[in-house]
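Look over both lines:
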Amino acid sequence: MIVVASDHGGLILKQPILEALDELAVPYRYIGTDSTESTDYPMWGCKAAKMVSSGECEKGIIICGTGAGISMAANKVKGIRCVVCSDVYTAKLSRAHNDANMLALGGRVVGPDLAKMLVQIWLETPFDGGERHCRRVQMIMDIESA
Protein backbone atom coordinates (compact mmCIF):
# COMPACT_ATOMS: atom_id res chain seq x y z
CA MET A 1 0.00 0.00 0.00
CA ILE A 2 1.27 3.45 -0.98
CA VAL A 3 0.15 6.59 0.82
CA VAL A 4 -0.30 9.67 -1.37
CA ALA A 5 -0.70 13.14 0.12
CA SER A 6 -0.82 16.63 -1.31
CA ASP A 7 -1.30 20.19 -0.21
CA HIS A 8 -3.02 22.74 -2.48
CA GLY A 9 0.19 23.44 -4.43
CA GLY A 10 0.57 19.82 -5.45
CA LEU A 11 -3.07 19.13 -6.19
CA ILE A 12 -2.48 19.45 -9.94
CA LEU A 13 -0.45 16.20 -9.84
CA LYS A 14 -2.91 14.24 -7.71
CA GLN A 15 -4.93 12.76 -10.56
CA PRO A 16 -1.99 11.87 -12.83
CA ILE A 17 -0.23 10.13 -9.93
CA LEU A 18 -3.33 8.20 -8.90
CA GLU A 19 -3.80 7.20 -12.57
CA ALA A 20 -0.19 5.97 -12.69
CA LEU A 21 -0.75 3.89 -9.56
CA ASP A 22 -3.95 2.44 -11.04
CA GLU A 23 -2.12 1.58 -14.29
CA LEU A 24 0.61 -0.15 -12.27
CA ALA A 25 -2.03 -1.95 -10.15
CA VAL A 26 -0.45 -0.48 -7.00
CA PRO A 27 -2.90 -0.07 -4.12
CA TYR A 28 -2.89 3.37 -2.52
CA ARG A 29 -4.60 5.56 0.01
CA TYR A 30 -4.99 9.28 -0.68
CA ILE A 31 -4.98 11.43 2.46
CA GLY A 32 -4.29 14.92 1.10
CA THR A 33 -6.47 17.91 0.39
CA ASP A 34 -9.06 17.96 -2.38
CA SER A 35 -9.26 21.74 -2.40
CA THR A 36 -7.22 24.51 -3.99
CA GLU A 37 -7.61 26.55 -0.79
CA SER A 38 -4.34 27.02 1.05
CA THR A 39 -3.41 24.19 3.40
CA ASP A 40 -0.21 23.45 5.32
CA TYR A 41 2.23 21.04 3.66
CA PRO A 42 3.98 20.05 6.94
CA MET A 43 0.74 18.48 8.16
CA TRP A 44 0.39 16.31 5.05
CA GLY A 45 4.08 15.39 4.87
CA CYS A 46 4.15 14.37 8.52
CA LYS A 47 0.90 12.40 8.36
CA ALA A 48 2.04 10.43 5.30
CA ALA A 49 5.52 9.86 6.77
CA LYS A 50 4.06 8.46 9.98
CA MET A 51 2.02 6.00 7.93
CA VAL A 52 5.22 4.82 6.24
CA SER A 53 7.36 4.75 9.40
CA SER A 54 4.71 2.76 11.28
CA GLY A 55 4.53 0.15 8.52
CA GLU A 56 0.90 0.97 7.73
CA CYS A 57 2.09 1.84 4.21
CA GLU A 58 5.16 0.49 2.42
CA LYS A 59 6.05 3.77 0.67
CA GLY A 60 4.74 7.30 0.28
CA ILE A 61 4.36 9.86 -2.48
CA ILE A 62 3.87 13.43 -1.34
CA ILE A 63 3.31 16.61 -3.32
CA CYS A 64 3.49 20.34 -2.66
CA GLY A 65 4.38 23.30 -4.88
CA THR A 66 8.09 22.45 -5.17
CA GLY A 67 8.31 19.13 -3.30
CA ALA A 68 10.92 20.69 -1.04
CA GLY A 69 8.84 21.78 1.93
CA ILE A 70 6.76 18.62 2.18
CA SER A 71 9.90 16.47 1.90
CA MET A 72 11.57 18.42 4.72
CA ALA A 73 8.56 17.76 6.95
CA ALA A 74 8.51 14.05 6.06
CA ASN A 75 12.23 13.66 6.71
CA LYS A 76 11.73 14.78 10.33
CA VAL A 77 9.89 11.50 11.01
CA LYS A 78 12.15 8.70 12.22
CA GLY A 79 12.78 6.05 9.59
CA ILE A 80 11.93 8.22 6.60
CA ARG A 81 14.22 8.71 3.62
CA CYS A 82 12.26 11.07 1.41
CA VAL A 83 13.72 12.39 -1.84
CA VAL A 84 12.45 15.43 -3.70
CA CYS A 85 12.71 14.57 -7.36
CA SER A 86 12.19 16.17 -10.76
CA ASP A 87 14.32 13.93 -12.99
CA VAL A 88 14.52 10.26 -13.98
CA TYR A 89 18.12 9.78 -12.81
CA THR A 90 17.34 10.88 -9.25
CA ALA A 91 14.14 8.81 -9.17
CA LYS A 92 16.09 5.69 -10.13
CA LEU A 93 19.17 6.16 -7.95
CA SER A 94 17.25 7.33 -4.88
CA ARG A 95 15.76 3.84 -4.79
CA ALA A 96 18.75 1.85 -6.06
CA HIS A 97 21.39 3.51 -3.86
CA ASN A 98 19.51 5.25 -1.04
CA ASP A 99 16.49 2.97 -0.52
CA ALA A 100 14.23 6.05 -0.44
CA ASN A 101 10.87 5.15 1.05
CA MET A 102 9.12 8.38 0.12
CA LEU A 103 9.04 10.42 -3.08
CA ALA A 104 8.25 14.14 -3.08
CA LEU A 105 7.21 15.96 -6.24
CA GLY A 106 6.53 19.61 -6.99
CA GLY A 107 3.23 20.43 -8.66
CA ARG A 108 4.69 23.73 -9.88
CA VAL A 109 7.92 22.06 -11.08
CA VAL A 110 6.99 18.72 -12.63
CA GLY A 111 4.42 18.24 -15.39
CA PRO A 112 1.79 15.48 -15.24
CA ASP A 113 3.43 13.14 -17.77
CA LEU A 114 6.85 13.43 -16.14
CA ALA A 115 5.26 12.86 -12.72
CA LYS A 116 3.74 9.60 -13.93
CA MET A 117 7.08 8.52 -15.37
CA LEU A 118 8.93 9.38 -12.14
CA VAL A 119 6.42 7.47 -10.04
CA GLN A 120 6.72 4.39 -12.25
CA ILE A 121 10.53 4.42 -12.27
CA TRP A 122 10.71 5.09 -8.54
CA LEU A 123 8.30 2.28 -7.68
CA GLU A 124 9.81 -0.25 -10.07
CA THR A 125 13.46 0.31 -9.10
CA PRO A 126 14.60 -2.01 -6.33
CA PHE A 127 17.22 -1.19 -3.72
CA ASP A 128 20.55 -2.53 -5.00
CA GLY A 129 21.64 -3.57 -1.54
CA GLY A 130 25.27 -4.49 -1.43
CA GLU A 131 27.68 -3.59 1.32
CA ARG A 132 28.42 -0.04 0.17
CA HIS A 133 24.80 1.08 -0.21
CA CYS A 134 23.61 -0.71 2.92
CA ARG A 135 26.41 0.89 4.93
CA ARG A 136 25.51 4.36 3.68
CA VAL A 137 21.78 3.93 4.27
CA GLN A 138 22.59 2.75 7.81
CA MET A 139 24.77 5.84 8.31
CA ILE A 140 21.80 8.01 7.30
CA MET A 141 19.54 6.17 9.74
CA ASP A 142 22.13 6.43 12.54
CA ILE A 143 21.93 10.22 12.35
CA GLU A 144 18.45 9.97 13.90
CA SER A 145 19.98 8.49 17.05
CA ALA A 146 22.75 11.09 17.37
Q: What stands out?
A: The mean pLDDT is 97. The helical segments are 14-23, 41-53, 68-74, 88-96, 112-124, 130-143. The beta strands are 2-6, 28-30, 59-64, 82-84, 102-106.
